[in-house]
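Batch 3, record 17
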Amino acid sequence: MSASMLSAADRRRPWLLLAPSLITLFVLMIVPIGIMTIFSFYEFVTAGVEKEVFTTANWHEFLTDSFYHMFLWKTIRVAGITAILCALMGYPAAYCIAMTNYKHKWLLLLLLIVPFWISFTIRTFSWIHILGEQGVINVLLLKLGLVNEPIRMLYTEGSVIMGMIHFLLPYMILNVYVAIEGIDRNLISAARTLGCTAWQAFREVVLPLSLPGLMAGLLLCFVLAAGSYVTPQILGSTRDALFGNIIFDTIMDELNWPMGSTLSLVLLIFLGAVAAVYSRYMGLSRVLKGLSG
Amino acid sequence: MSLDTSTRGFGWRAVQFLTVLVYVFMFAPILVVIVLSFNASQFGGFPMTGFSLHWYAKLLENESVLRAFQTSLWVAIVTSIVCTALGILAAVALVRYEFPGKEWVNTILIAPALVPETVLGVGLLLLMRFAHQPRTMWLLVLGHIMLALPYVVLVVQARLIGVKRVYEEAAMSLGANRLQTFREITLPLIMPAIVASLLLVFTISFDNVTASMFWRPSGVETMPTEILSMLKISISPEINALGTLMIVVTVGLPLLGGGLARYLARSAR
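Prediction for the assembled complex:
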């Protein structure tokens, strides 16, 4: 069916089908981001009150106040560490699942999906029972007499990162797994027959061909970690707050809507830029594949 | 083709060992929650002092938990029905039609999965403030619909691509109109994806916490925000019992649904 033969009704039909979704997203996502932009130029008077005049004071405050720079930098650092640790832990596991001769491979894959069904809040607070003063590790160490008093592991940056890895690892493994699974096994056999050791075959064939999956996993983990707000609240002390927590406090506690809007836009622009750089080199379609599991 | 196992040496065994560790890492904390929920001790942590169902009984008397559960259940059911319906229509348009601006439409439909939830959370609040409207339960439902829509589109789209067009064309050439064709041919064929979407959206909505912290009407708690506020007070054993119950529901439901979808897929063929 060529385009010229389509009747007006045919041409309208996809838009009718799309209309409910597009209108929903337009009103609930695009318009609010527009309002956010306007609010970021309003003047903050006092909690819950703002003056509708044009001012760049909020942006000026963000650009000059080192308080915000520190939290932005910390968020980048924590999200970066999280993403890299996810890659280091997730890659071998994904490789193993893709390459195994194990009969019940479907079970290994199912177990990767199961965490997505378990409440994120529960998965996060479960780490309190592992790292806390009455947690598994401390109780064990005390019983064995290796320490005299509980080690402080909970409510630190480390426990926040641990919680985020726990939540993001399945995303990483699934992304890398899909990439490795797609590699033609004959290439590996060919490399081996031509004299490569197992390690050389991995380095020269598997690793480069799975790189797009690894990069997609890194992007996904970084973006989700940098936008997180609940994990630091459950597993961190007040000093371990990330940018998301600053936004929440600014809006929900200080009721400073103009500054909250500015900070939200900063997060959106920053993560958008990261994704744009990524898609410039890798294409976003891979990430979408990873999202749909 | 599988690789010859005999050539796999130390490196492979190290990889296997690491993989086992990764699975332990993913599931050990969850198992600990389940084990501790049966602890007789009045503290939420170790050591175990005996087996007890006391905390489950206590939970059933906890009115704010029950109210939060009802709220979440209601929001999740409404969200999953509306969101799945919207997503199916959009997926049909994307897979079965060619139109200008398709790339853009696709990007917009997927965007809520990529925009940080905090930003979406703040955005909807600003919209309410701009329109001078109070936060209601419907705001929560609409917000959840937005958050889950990309996943429905992706899941239904993937299935629809696999459904050959000839079936639909055959029905139409035999005199069925578009609606009949959709109802009699397309809908049964994509049923597994629809069941999967309903369950996925249910879980996404029931589990959502970041955005819900922004959107919930004042005084209303959803299940996850209730857990958050319980955590702020203390790690009570009740939370472990609650967590265990939720794990049973949210893991059991998709497993059941998966079985059902497989059954439907088989009978549709």
